[in-house]
Amino acid sequence: MRFHKYHALGNDYLVLDPADYPTWKEPNLAQIRVICHRNFGVGSDGILWGPLPSRPGAFGLRIFNPDGSEAEKSGNGLRIFSRYLWDQGRVRDAAFTVETPGGFVESVIKDAGRLITVDMGHVSFASAQIPVAGPEREVLNERIKIQDREFSFCAATIGNPHCVLPLPEISADLARRYGPDLEVHPNFPRRTNVQFLQVLDRRNIRIEIWERGAGYTLASGSSSSASAAVAHRLGLVDRQVTVHMPGGQIAIEIGDRYSIRMTGTVNKVADGTMHPDLFAVTV
Q1: Under DSSP, is residue 249 helix (H, G, I), strand (E, B) or coil?
Q2: pTM, to two decimals
Q3: Model confidence over 108-135: pLDDT tens digits?
Q4: How many CB atoms lie within 10 A of CB 112?
Q5: What is the model's pLDDT at position 281?
Q6: pLDDT per residue over 7-51, tens digit each?
């Protein structure tokens, strides 16, 4: 039961290749939870299950959160999976396509896999696509009350849902306090990723992240993409944006119709083998 561990700005994932798990159709809920657990398992912010069959020239990928739920798309996960394919010699061309439940993306390998650009697709603010409850609309500058505080928020999707809260000051404590309730708020029928956004200047933003199914996270590619798109839609930043997170920085280019090109680093951590005793524990 081999695993390959990587991190992208401190957001760590385990790549599990289905070829190494011939008796598994996919990891089940109990397996995912114990594998990702920081004390009882290998420990990670999620599992990348692939490559899977896809259209010619593409590699299929499924993404599982530590709570066992499935993510439609992950920017950091896609960069990590792209680096894994490159490391394993599964791709020879610098550019190739990956299929996720949230859509197709194109990856471009740079610097021998240590730097990767992903065309993430288009951001939409349409409530029906995200989804957000209520009438069809662009979800911009709406109000939401959580615990003792009311926030202004915008919602967006880049294949997965995001709730972005622009604020003059942000902190990890703020994300940890309000993120869990925002994730499961009735406004978001499929739950949501949450970003607390601070605009530094026309080319720089800072975010703190509460990730759906994973909790407080040091970095996120899809969160960076959504936050930069929201800031641009509100007229606060230009099309070239550096997103600053506790784990590091991601460069975002915003194109026509809010297409997103994301560039960031990937670091390999380890290759290893899971022992069957790992699965004797239920978490």
Answers
A1: strand
A2: 0.95
A3: 999 989 999 999 999 999 999 999 999 9
A4: 9
A5: 87
A6: 999 999 999 999 999 999 999 999 999 999 999 999 999 999 999
From residue 274, how far is each of 41, 59, 81, 118, 150 by CA, in Å? 9, 24, 19, 30, 45
Alpha helices in 121-220 (DSSP H): 172-183
CB 266 within 8 A of CB 83: yes
Cβ(76)–Cβ(221) below 8 Å:
yes
Q: What is the largest CA-CA distance in the chain?
A: 54
CA atoms within 13 A on the CB side of 13: 32
Strand partners, 268: 6
**Among the listed residues 104, 102, 113, the one whose alpha carbon sits nearest the alpha carbon of residue 79:** 113
How far is residue 86 from each of residues 62, 90, 113, 207, measured CA to CA in Å?
A: 18, 6, 7, 30
CA atoms of 26 and 21, how far apart (whole Å): 9
Q: Which helix (H) or strand (E) element contains residue 195?
A: strand 193-201
Contact (Cβ atoms closer than 8 angstroms) between residue 49 and residue 114 = no
Residue with tokens 């959580």: 146
The token duo for 107 is 């990856």
